[in-house]
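Hi support team,

I submitted a single chain yesterday and got back a structure, but I'm not sure I'm reading the token output correctly. Could someone confirm the output below corresponds to the sequence I sent? I've pasted both exactly as they appear in my results page.

Thanks,
R.
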Amino acid sequence: MEDTEEEKKKKEEQKAQFESLCKLVKEILGDKVEKVTLSDRIVNSPCVLVTGEYGWSANMERIMKAQALRDSSMSTYMTSKKTLELNPNHSIVVELKKKADADKSDKTVKDLVWLIFETALLGSGFSLDDPNAFAGRIHRMIKLGLSIEDTAEEEEGTKEKVDEDLPPLENDGESSMMEQVD
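Hi R., thanks for writing in. Yes, this is the structure output for that exact sequence:
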């Protein structure tokens, strides 16, 4: 079914509104994706990764990476060019746009972009290049959700080191307040 004039106009307005976010996401992800676009076919997910018509699918990419005698030069140009499609109606993408518009160089915006990209990778069947970085981002987001500050852990770690470096307390010959009460 073709879109009505109102629907076409709405899509153009959304495309104009989210153009800056698409450019920022492409900047952050670099060569991991070929392009970042808006999608009108996604319903529940904030984003999805799609591959080109003639590129390798996620399963084929996994099979080729597992080959023992593979040619690395061939795999670089045969790996699929991925397109990240964002859902402009999803609350995560809307809030990400607000955060990005407020401050493009915010570290949490970059972390969130990488998180939605890597979860889209996993959801589409691809494998992660750096699972440890993904786990670190997840842990930072969990800390943020639980209102745990990173400095609290660092201070505790340095406090323990400082306590280890201090000499043991010596008794000055004076009795403590607890001894006087007894």
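A quick pointer for reading it: The domain at 5-65+76-154 is CATH 1.20.120.790 (Four Helix Bundle (Hemerythrin (Met), subunit A)). Let us know if anything else looks off.

Best,
Support desk
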